[in-house]
Specification:
The chain is an alpha+beta fold and 196 residues long. 24% of the residues lie in helices and 27% in strands. It contains six helices and seven strands, in the order βαββαβαβββααα.
């Protein structure tokens, strides 16, 4: 079944490094993000899953799937993955993003030259039109709308203390600017990404 998110939907593109994690999203209905490397706002409408080289020749470096976000909570890695109690990061905090059904996009979004990404915010309209990951970058007047949406969600959900800032002093850090497409170079993922 294919899914067409509404044009104004806020979408967070996330990295999936192996088929097991995509299967967890499909069967168990959640995705994990380490708190220490999480984007500022996780209260989005959908997650889009960017598949890395771990998916093999036919399925790597593309976005094939999307899932609606039902909520999120903070927990530990040990609570999420109980069969790895001795993992080096077992006690670290993670966001558990609760998901609705995993859906196939009407067309995959290929990486092209942007193969090493971490998180990227985009919209339903851009996802529908995109053929390559670079097409997902929010530009020009749409950036102001995305900024406003991120700001409102951060304040509404209390993400990272945003509710403590006066309305005219809310600022996003450089990492969020990169996710919005403000920089030509997307930052590199952690060198031990496979172990998150």
């Amino acid at each position: 079944m294919t899914l067409q998110p509404e044009p104004t939907a806020l979408i967070l593109v996330v990295v999936v490094t192996n088929p097991r994690d995509l299967e967890i999203a499909r069967v168990l209905g959640w995705y994990r993000i380490p708190l220490k490397s999480a984007p500022k706002v996780v209260a989005v409408d959908y997650l889009a899953f960017y598949q890395t080289a771990g998916f093999g020749e036919q399925e790597r470096w593309r976005i094939n799937f999307i899932a609606p976000v039902r909520g999120h909570e903070l927990t530990t890695r040990a609570e999420l993955i109980r069969d790895e109690p001795d993992h080096p990061r077992a006690g670290e905090e993670y966001y558990k993003i609760q998901l609705g059904p995993l859906q196939v996009l009407s067309h995959p979004v290929q990486a092209d030259q942007w193969r090493r990404i971490t998180f990227l915010y985009t919209t339903g309209e851009l996802l529908h039109q995109a053929r390559i990951v670079k097409d997902l970058v929010v530009r020009n007047e749409e950036r102001a709308l995305l900024w406003q949406s991120l700001r409102e969600r951060a304040m509404r959900n209390g993400d990272y203390g945003a509710t403590e800032l006066p309305e005219d002093q809310f600022q996003l850090d450089p990492l969020v600017l990169a996710m919005l497409g403000g920089f030509d170079k997307i930052h590199e993922p952690p060198t031990d990404w496979d172990n998150v």
